[in-house]
# Entry
Amino acid sequence: MSPLLITALVVGVIVLLIAIGYINHMVESSKLEKARLKADLNDRVRRSRDVSDNMPGQLMSPALKLLLSRLELQFSDRLLPLDKQNSALRNRIAELRDMVAKGEDIPVRNAPQPILTEVKAKEVRFLLENFHSQITRAAQDGALQANEAKRWIGEIRHILVQLHFEFFTNLGQQSLQQGQPGQARLAYERGVQYLRKQPDQARYQSQLQQLEQQLARANDMVLEKAKPAPDEHSELTDGLQSLGEDDWKKKNIYD
# Structure
């Protein structure tokens, strides 16, 4: 075997090994990309469904339910080719198609959840933050038109205002029922301050007036509670009375 042939064989083997390595690298990269995409789509499906299922009924509208169902359907359709054996996913896609086909007549089965505690308010706020990130991401990758995304971001702000209004109203009412008008006044003050900071004052004028009326009522109760009873005597009032008598006696002596 000539040296030239040996050299050609060595070069051929090296080229073959490089090609095999490159192909293996491409296959592994493809597998990793598919795994990454699958995990990302699963996360987006979960987030959309989490908001759709857990949003309190008083804050969920047919339009919002429809949008969340549309987003979940888009992500699920993209996920199915990466998870073809997932029968639960196929069934969910069929269910979502039926829901989306109903348009504004889509059923909303979310039960009302009174916002009575700060913990509950934070849970709902987290759902809204999650929804906001979903809208932003959907606009970036073309799942939503920019103008539609902008409109829904404005709607999220509106729902957030509704959340705060309900929370401060309920907090104040609870405090009044517990005989704590001072705590009620604080809750209503926080609500009034929050609404006054909103750029669209006209939209929330009714809620603001309601909170202001409740604040005035709580303030009157605080002042009324602070008044001493007519027949109530304290060490301070008794001391002031005796001091006045002593001054009168001293005045008579020196006169």
